[in-house]
Amino acid sequence: MGETSRFKCDFSLFYLGARRAIIIFLDAPPDYQTTLSQTVRIFAFNLKEFPGRPAQDFVMTSDTDLWPLRKEHFLPRPNSDIVLLHSECCTPFSINNRSYPMYPMSNIGATVSTWRQIMNDNHKIAFNSDSILNYLGDVFGEQVRRPLVVGEEGWYMDQRMISIRLLEWMTKHGNSSVYRVSDHGFSRFDRIAWNVGDLLPESFARQFDAHLPEKMFLSSQWKRNIQPLLLLMYGKHSWEARWCTMLYKTAENSFERWAFTVYAPEVKEPLIDDHTHCSLTEQE
Length: 284
Prior knowledge:
By secondary structure, the protein is an alpha/beta fold. The chain has helices spanning 3-18, 33-39, 112-120, 129-140, 157-173, 201-204, 219-234, 239-263; strands at 58-60, 66-68, 82-85, 93-95, 98-100, 108-111, 178-181, 187-189, 207-211.
């Protein structure tokens, strides 16, 4: 991991911890860290550190660069075991002479017990690096042990894996408890055509999520691309917008201190301490 990436990781972990998030690390061989980081979330429910309660807890996957914009799209549904978002967005794929619908990994929700049924009913339980790689290898063969390349077939291994298992689960249990959230009339803010600064509030109401620009904490990106989104989401004087702005400023200041420390190593001040955090809370 490069120095800049390490700083970003440390900063993110600091704030996730402050929000009482539960963070699970997987001990991964260096050659397969990318593959495992891409695929481990569909096996998270088998890890011994996973804290969820099988019957009660509803868990939905997400991507770190996706911001949900319509809360009602992401909620559990009564009498539904599985909630699928954007389930009609992708073309089917074939493997072993069988066609499967492609369900995007960005947002798939289910109770913990249902997740375990989906992933474990048709295969030996995978619960660590070796068993996850073996599980994937049983389905995708040798490509699991090759380097991942962005955009190539292996890059979507987790999405293909969960799509296969979802179809198997539905074949066994039926579709009556599967809720497909309709995207009809809605669209996504996407980084490749980011026009949030030109969007009117009435048009914003028809967006279901935002695929954020890369390097969003750069000053130029934040002011041009993220601040307008926050204003549409929360309003100028909301605590949410103020909290996000304070987080951005803290990240910017901490990065400047980190860069100074890297180039002036005699400076021994900590990068993140009790004085470099957002004090604004939801109650404020």
